[in-house]
């Protein structure tokens, strides 16, 4: 699929959207607010190198050993001393330099994009402005094309649903691009900017009320939702290179 010529900036959903637009994208921004890219931002803040990987499929443990990294486990099986997809668990971790962080959504998308797109960065509500400013400082409209990929949620049957929190997170990044010199933005991307601006002043409450936020809170992970709502509290820009994310 070829990107429509008039637009420099697009919004895509999930792995399927990433696959369609990868060939025509210079910069891919992956957004998975609850929780991969939020957890990633916390890890980068702590100085970790983070390896994205497909969801725990039996090969993740071997892969972690091959890159000499600690493997994050599923939230549902994590013990007190484990790191999981929970950003709170990463914030509480000590003496971890390298982390393999699988997830069925954002991490799987990043793993797929590695080597297929020149520049892959990850954004959450915590670091959306930093990511937007970083792109604007290094790339130019009309010369480069940006695709912001809202991860969405993978259902148990393998289908994907949209996720309000990722639409807001995408809009947060796109808002910075729009404000700092990237005016040619596709209509769907503009819709996400409007959605973000509508919730901007009430983001913490909006995350608590959204479907994924409610599910995590019911599972006992309300702190993860709270951390995800730390709007622009991080200046980290996770940049994917040689298989892992480091701070740009």
Automatic annotation (TrEMBL):
Reactions catalysed: (2R)-O-phospho-3-sulfolactate + H2O = (2R)-3-sulfolactate + phosphate
EC class: hydrolase
A Pfam family hit: 2-ph_phosp
Protein name (database record): Probable 2-phosphosulfolactate phosphatase
Family annotation (PANTHER family): 2-PHOSPHOSULFOLACTATE PHOSPHATASE-RELATED
Stated family: Belongs to the ComB family.
Cofactor(s), by name: Mg(2+)
Keywords: Hydrolase, Magnesium
Enzyme Commission number: 3.1.3.71
């Amino acid at each position: 699929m070829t990107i429509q010529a008039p637009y420099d900036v697009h919004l895509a959903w999930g792995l399927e959207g990433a696959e369609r637009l990868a060939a025509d994208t210079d910069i891919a921004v992956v957004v998975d607010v609850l929780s991969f890219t939020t957890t990633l931002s916390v890890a980068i803040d702590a100085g970790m190198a983070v390896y994205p990987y497909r969801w725990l499929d039996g090969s993740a443990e071997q892969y972690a050993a091959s890159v000499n990294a600690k493997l994050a486990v599923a939230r549902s099986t994590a013990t007190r001393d484990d790191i999981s997809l929970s950003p709170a668990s990463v914030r509480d971790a000590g003496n971890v330099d390298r982390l393999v962080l699988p997830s069925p959504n954002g991490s799987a998308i990043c793993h797929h994009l590695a080597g297929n797109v020149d520049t892959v960065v990850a954004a959450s509500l915590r670091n959306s402005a930093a990511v937007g400013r970083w792109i604007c400082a290094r790339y130019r409209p009309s010369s480069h094309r940006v695709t912001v990929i809202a991860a969405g949620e993978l259902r148990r049957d393998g289908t994907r649903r949209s996720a309000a929190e990722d639409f807001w997170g995408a809009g947060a990044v796109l808002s910075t691009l729009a404000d700092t010199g990237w005016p040619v933005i596709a209509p769907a991307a503009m819709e996400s900017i409007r959605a973000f601006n509508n919730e901007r002043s009430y983001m913490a409450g909006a995350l608590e009320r959204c479907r994924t936020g409610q599910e995590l809170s019911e599972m006992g992970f309300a702190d993860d939702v709270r951390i995800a709502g730390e709007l622009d509290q991080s200046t980290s820009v996770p940049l994917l290179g040689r298989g892992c994310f480091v701070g740009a």
